[in-house]
Design goal:
It comes from Hemibagrus guttatus. This is Alkylated DNA repair protein AlkB homologue 8 N-terminal domain-containing protein. Pfam families: ALKBH8_N. One of its GO terms (molecular function) is methyltransferase activity. The structure is a single chain. The protein is mainly alpha-helical. It has 9 helices and 6 strands; from the N terminus they run E-E-E-E-E-E-H-H-H-H-H-H-H-H-H. It folds into 3 domains: 42 residues, no CATH class; 77 residues; 80 residues, no CATH class. The strands form 3 sheets. Strands 1-4 form a two-stranded parallel ribbon. The chain has a two-stranded antiparallel sheet with strand order 2-3. A hairpin with a 2-residue loop joins strand 5 and strand 6.
Length: 205
Amino acid sequence: MKEKVVDFRRAQSDHSPLNINRSNVEIIKSTKFLGVHLVEGLTWSLNTSSITKKAQQRLYFLERLRKAHLPPPILTTFYRGTIESILSSCITAWFGNCTVSDRKTLQRIVRTAEKIIRVSLPSITDIYSTRCIRKANSIVDDPTHPSHTLFTLLPSGKRYGSIRALTTRLLNSFFPQAIRWPCRKHRQKAPSAYITPPNAADVMR
C-alpha cells in the first residue's frame, strides 16, 4: 500500500506517513491515474514527457506509412487515432497549467506530423480549445451534472458568472477558463477536430 500527498503550498512541511496495523504507508512522489502522471506539486512536466515519448514512437510508423505512398486522408486518420489521441488524453485537466516549454514540446510533435502528412493540422492549443468547449457544452446541457450550477448566466445573458481565483493554478484550470468564455461559444457546435476555431486566440484569452 502506498500514499500520494499533493501539497503545493508555499510553506510546505513534512507529512507524517499513515500508520496501518503498525506499519507506515510509503509516501510516493508521483503516481499514474487514468493515464495521467500526478506529482506532488501538481506540475505537468512528467506527464508531458511521457506523452511526448509515446507520440514520438508512433511518428515512426506514420513515416513508414507515408513511404508506402498512402494518401494524406489515410495518414490523417492514422494520426488522429494513434498520435492526437495521445496528445489530447485528459487534456482539459492538465494543459491549462502546462509550462511554455511543455507546450512547445507537444507542438513540435504536431508540426512533425504535418511535415510527414503534408497537410495542415490543428495546433495543440486549438485541440485544447475544442475539447474544452465540447466538455463545457456537455456540462451546460446536463442539469444533473455536479458542476452544472457553476455555469450561471449573468443578467446580460452573454457570459457566465466567473469563479474567483486567488492563484494562477486555479485561474488556468478548466472551469475558470471555460466559464470566462462568451456564452455563445458554448452554444455553438464545437469546431471539427481539423478546422481551426474561428477565434482561437480570443477563446484562450
